[in-house]
Amino acid sequence: MFSASSLSQRKALSSADMYLLLISGIIVLLLGLAVIAAGIRQGTSRISAEERYEEAEGSIIAMKSRLTVHTVNFIPLISKEYSAAVEFMASDGRIFTVAMPYVLKASAEYRDERAAYENGTPVAVKYDPADPQICYIGDNRGFRMREIIYKVIAAVPLLLIGYGLIWWHFHI
Questions:
Q1: For FRET with 44, which of 53, 78, 97, 169 sits at 20 to 30 Å CA-CA?
Q2: Which helix (H) or strand (E) holds 50?
């Protein structure tokens, strides 16, 4: 049989545990909100930094390829990735040759680069005037928006866990 003092200690411990749920929930919820805020801030700062990029006429001079292995549901898949070598002239007259990131053969980026390479049409290159090696072809806005969305998706479990802990505190 429990004495009165041991019952009060158990209730106090239970109360302390309940506040631990609340505090943990608030911390996890704030962490999720911080991930969302950081993602939005990072994305908008990169987008605004890219607004100062200069545009130049360039051309794809070569296509490099490599084989890579991706796993899908524990099944290794061998795929071919391609990278375009782009040559362009910066506003100061210097000529740069930059290798673009590797993309899968089935992607839209590949089709654009391959079409430009095959028919010899020029491509628009946007580059950082401070460091012309940092450049891209096409529109990079979709990539930045995906970056923000990925941060939001990563934050959703944190928000749900935080909300669940707070809800559990008030409903137990």
A1: 97
A2: helix 4-50
Does 63 share its domain with 101?
A: yes
Question: Are 66 and 106 in a shared domain?
Answer: yes
Q: Do 102 and 152 lie in a common domain?
A: no
Whether 81 and 119 share a structural domain: yes
Sign of CA dihedral 166, 169, 171, 172: positive
CA dihedral sign of residues 100, 104, 108, 114: positive
Query: Would you give the DSSP letter of residue 102?
Result: P
* In a domain? residue 83: yes
> How many other C-beta atoms can be found within 10 angstroms of the C-beta atom of residue 28?
20
Give phi and psi for 47, each to the nearest 5: -65, -45
Q: Is the pTM of this model over 0.85?
A: no
Q: Divide the 172 residues of the chain into consecutive groups of 10 and give the mean pLDDT of each group.
A: 50 68 92 90 80 86 82 83 85 89 68 60 84 79 71 89 89 78
Measured in whole angstroms, how far is the alpha carbon of residue 5 from the centre of its chain?
55
Cα–Cα distance for residue pair 139/125, rounded to 1 Å: 10
